[in-house]
Amino acid sequence: MRPRVDYLLSATLFLSPQLAGDRIYFISDLSGRLSLWAMDANGSVPERLLPADIGLLTPELVSGEAFVALSQLGKIVVMLDNNGDENLQPCVIPIGGGDPEPLFGDRFAGQQVMLVRLDPDGRGRIIVDPRKRPDVEAYEFDLTRPDAGLHLLGTSKYVYLPVGRDAAGDRYLIVDEYLPRDTTLWLWERSTGERRLLRGTPIDARSGDEPERREGFGNGWFIDDDLVLLESFAFDDLGGLAWLSLAEPDRLAPVEITGLRHHGRGEFSGAHHLTGSRYSLTYNVDGVSFGYGAHFDPAARRMIVDELLFGAGELGNGVVEHVHYDDTTDRYVVSYSSAATPSQLAVLGAVDDDGVRTAAFVTRNRVIGLDAAMLGSGEDASFTSHDGLRISARLYLPAAQLGYPGPRPIVYYIHGGPQGQERPDFTWFSMPLIQYLTLRGFAVFVPNVRGSTGYGQEYMAQVDRDWGGKDRLDHVAGVEHLRQDPRLDASRIGVMGRSYGGFMTLTLAGRHPELWSAAIDMFGPYDLPVWVKRLPEAWQTYFQLFLGHPDRDRDELIARSPRTYLDRLACPMMVIQGANDPRVTKADSDELVDELRGKGKKIDYLVFEDEGHDITKAANKVRCYEAIADFMVAHLHPGQPKQ
Questions:
Q1: How far is residue 532's CA from residue 259's CA, in Å, rounded to a whole number?
Q2: 177 pLDDT exceeds 80?
């Protein structure tokens, strides 16, 4: 019997939880679209906090905070857009729910606002992408003031992030980010209204004679009047912490982190200040989440881990999408999922006499109508690429109980980014799709080729200005690797991907047509010079550095464009697009489809009028997953399981 995708998707999403006293606030698609909900911290019937016709953007696509609940002020600030257009606006609702009111009125209408930070006292900071000019603006604000106390902290044509504030609010740490982890660090002071450079060379002042050292600054905290603690990749390719003297910024030095309990190469994901000297630390160990409680010893310049929050036991071998600490109760709340486990909310209680926090699950989320044994966690399928580089990958196979005979056809799935990573995370679009494809008889291969996050700065940076270069050859090596597995039929491979994964799908289908029997592009860039020019103005600055300038580097971009090679397309293709997508517009996919159909290529085209750069609404997900699986079945012929 054909598996029902709506049963697989019956497991709802529980995302971005925040714990405030005895209440948990979270994002969920319980109503068929993402909305804001609340429930008791020990479990209760969830209560929707937004009107039914309002849908939230996938938190993964929200830079900064998706919402912040301020129980002391009786308010929630939530970021709203219009059906995936990503023109996010901070809106205020009462803590018990209601109609959202724009926090800044129409001040930033039609622009994209990022909520960088909002403290419990109502003081916060935002950055604004005006969309139609290349200057990014940073502001501080005060939610307790009638006019919100909006005050400009500065502008930059690069990403301008106020990453730390002193207790008085008179000084801010500012990071300019040019490329991922290519940053400069600045100090903004209210006394002058200006910022001064602490670390790094601004990109406009570089000679180009030698590459800038990427110190990769992130969040920062003022320890005293002179010492600041910083997230940084300056001393470890996998990231960590550093300390800096504001009086002598040349004295940047590493902070030793002791007591970590994971094994292998774990990339530092970040730190969060809890209270006093307490911090939480998170790590990504080949896609699996580890989290720790720790305290900072400023005299020794050492971060001392004293508890494991997640990464083992009931919260092991999966992904914690979000962790939040409530200092009034000394408890954490997390959203956890794995490759085969839908997302759950769990509260980590106060430390007991034995120094252990126990996880109390407050949801019982599950897939209905399906034996849990049919969902697999996958197996390691890492391989060596064309130049000797190890590429992490996983292979998901149909459960033996399904009885599919013979070697399995393969769906070759490519993640987006390219600074992304396919992880064992049931909350993201791909994982339920991967499971559904295995239920339909496919093996699914998921590589994290160079350019992916999670494996260090050097690994990630190898895709800079090299889209369709060595990353493409990693995929060709991946196909050769699959040919060695007798459980697989490498003569029947379909390739698919989303966003950058869509770009790579189009590239591979055009440049290596002999490898594929089918291809599915989900909102992938097709004609790079045209695509870059269609991006919002503030985004173009970044992509001109990361990929190439559409005029000065036009020949290079044309050489890397899928459009240049798709005359050679030899397999049927499906294109999937959200009509409101600001990252890869519908015009990009329209032109791809029209041009290829005009050349006699077999192209199916599926457009979702109320989606953006993701598929979020329940009915749309069902339609999308079924269309993908049916297309692959029609062209890869997985056959029927034994009865």
A1: 45
A2: yes
Which secondary-structure segment (H or E) carries 591?
Answer: helix 586-598
Chain segment 437-472, per-residue pLDDT in tens: 999 999 999 999 999 999 999 999 999 989 999 999
Task: Check: CB of residue 255 under 8 Å from CB of residue 223.
Answer: no
Q: Are 151 and 139 in contact (CB under 8 A)?
A: yes
Report which secondary-structure segment, H or E, holds 320. Answer: strand 319-326
Read off the pLDDT of residues 554-581 as tens digits, 9 standing for 90 and up: 999 999 999 999 999 999 999 999 999 9
| SS3 state of residue 333 | strand
Structure tokens at 387: 């130049």
Q: Which of 17, 14, 56 is nearest to 33 (CA)?
A: 56
DSSP secondary structure letter of residue 546: H
**Using DSSP, how many helices (H) and how many strands (E) does the chain show?**
10, 37
Q: Give the integer Cα–Cα distance in Å for 578 and 498.
A: 12
Give tens-digit pLDDT for 521-531.
999 999 999 99
What is the residue type of 392? S
pLDDT at position 454, please?
A: 94
* Residue 221 pLDDT: 97
Sheet holding 35-40, edge to edge: 14-20, 23-28, 35-40, 47-48
Q: Do 343 and 426 meet the contact criterion of CB atoms below 8 Å apart?
A: yes
3-state secondary structure of 26: strand
- Which neighbouring-strand residues pair with 311? 316
DSSP three-state, residue 46: coil
What whole-number distance in Å separates Cα of residue 244 and Cα of residue 223?
10
What is the radius of gyration, based on Cα positions, of the chain?
A: 24
Pairing of strands 518-522, 488-498: parallel
Q: What is the pLDDT of residues 119-148, one digit of tens each?
A: 999 999 999 998 888 889 999 999 999 888
Token digits of residue 598: 């005009």
Cα gap 12→576, rounded to integer Å: 23
- 232, β-bridge pairs: 240
Report the 10 Å Cβ neighbour count for 42: 10
Q: Which residues contact 369 (CB under 8 A, 6 or more apart)?
A: 4, 7, 10
